[in-house]
TrEMBL record:
Residues 116-273 form the JmjC domain. Pfam families: Cupin_8. It comes from Luteimonas deserti. Coiled coil: none annotated. PANTHER family: HYPOXIA-INDUCIBLE FACTOR 1 ALPHA INHIBITOR-RELATED (PTHR12461), HYPOXIA-INDUCIBLE FACTOR 1-ALPHA INHIBITOR (PTHR12461:SF105). This is Cupin-like domain-containing protein.
Length: 339
């Protein structure tokens, strides 16, 4: 797959003074060299084994194992479904982090290694102290910091609800992004089960079958790409589709996830699943009625219009939400779902 449009870049930024406007961007941005002074980046520039040794300095002794996703050499690094979608083309193993790192180092010079991927591992749990030397200031955002370690792997295009600052600390990566509106053109697979929690594009970017996926050409026209070196970061705004490809035999990425929504807010995926259960299979005329109901109460909701005819104490679910009101609404929903 060839993509001509490059993701916009910002340079000259420091990890302790990232402008708020950058962190609030609704379009992707490459922050070139943002992490150039991180010690782990310096180690990675020496070699993969040096980066692995640096990480092992912080490994939590006696801590829980990490989950390693492992696939045979024949999958070419693409973690995906099996041929009939009855399962997946990989297995998961629980192993100590140090064992996973040593295994990756062992295979660095192997021309056909198994695909190995340690994904979304919470840094503060497995690598305490790492962030004292390698971190970014996100302006008070309550972000989850995770580390991703592997060899040459390809992660199918998917969306994440949080905003994401993806920081390349070892190896090289190619990121291909699509606007959220390209949903219909990316041929998204099942909502469940999924390879790693999010629904993914079924298109193999390494060998696109345009006859099978003809609308993908429209997605390609909107694609943006960036190749990232150690020390570079990529801001991926909420719900942008992203395909991540690790290009070297040893790769490490640190990412920070945060939401613009309040901490008490449910994920919209809960609403989508509930709507599939209650609305999707209604007669067409009824679905249109509910489309208008959602427009009125959700997408075009006007609190001032409600204030004009419903007393404050009687607004119930239409009242402004806070943690207390959200919990009360959640409790009511659970009762209804469990009838």
């Amino acid at each position: 797959m060839q993509v001509d449009k490059r993701i916009a870049e910002c340079g000259g930024l420091r990890p302790d003074t990232i402008p708020d406007a950058v962190l609030r961007s609704t379009t992707p941005l490459v922050l070139r060299g943002l992490l150039a002074d991180w010690p782990v980046v310096h180690a990675a520039r020496q070699s993969g084994p040096a980066a692995a040794a640096y990480l092992q300095r912080f490994e939590r002794r006696g801590g829980p194992p990490v989950v390693a996703t492992v696939g045979p050499p024949g999958i070419d690094g693409r973690f995906f479904y099996n041929d009939d979608f009855s399962g997946f083309n990989f297995r998961r193993e629980n192993v100590p982090l140090g064992v996973a790192l040593n295994t990756l180092v062992k295979y660095i010079t192997d021309p056909a290694p198994p695909a190995i991927y340690i994904g979304s591992t919470t840094i503060d749990t497995w690598l305490p102290g790492f962030r004292a030397e390698n971190d970014v200031d996100l302006g008070g955002r309550d972000a989850l910091a995770s580390i991703w370690i592997g060899n040459r792997t390809r992660i199918a295009a998917h969306q994440d609800l949080p905003d994401n600052l993806a920081c390349v600390v070892a190896g090289r990566r190619r990121a291909t992004l699509f606007p959220p509106q390209q949903l219909e053109n990316l041929y998204i697979g099942p909502l469940d089960p999924t390879p790693a929690g999010q629904a993914v594009s079924l298109v193999d970017f390494a060998e696109v079958d345009h006859a099978k996926f003809p609308r993908f050409a429209q997605a390609e026209a909107h694609a943006q790409v960036a190749e990232l070196e150690p020390g570079d970061a990529l801001l991926i705004p909420s719900m942008w589709w992203h395909h991540m490809e690790a290009l070297t035999p040893f790769n490490v990425l640190v990412n920070y996830w945060w939401r613009q929504a309040p901490a008490w807010a449910n994920t919209p995926m809960d609403t989508l699943m509930s709507a599939i259960l209650s609305i999707r299979d209604l007669p067409a005329g009824e679905r249109e009625i509910w489309r208008d109901v959602f427009r009125h109460y959700i997408f075009d909701y006007d609190e001032q219009a409600v204030a004009g005819h419903i007393p404050t104490a009687a607004r119930g679910a239409l009242a402004p939400l806070d943690a207390t009101h959200a919990q009360a609404l959640r409790t009511r929903l659970l009762k209804r779902l469990n009838r």
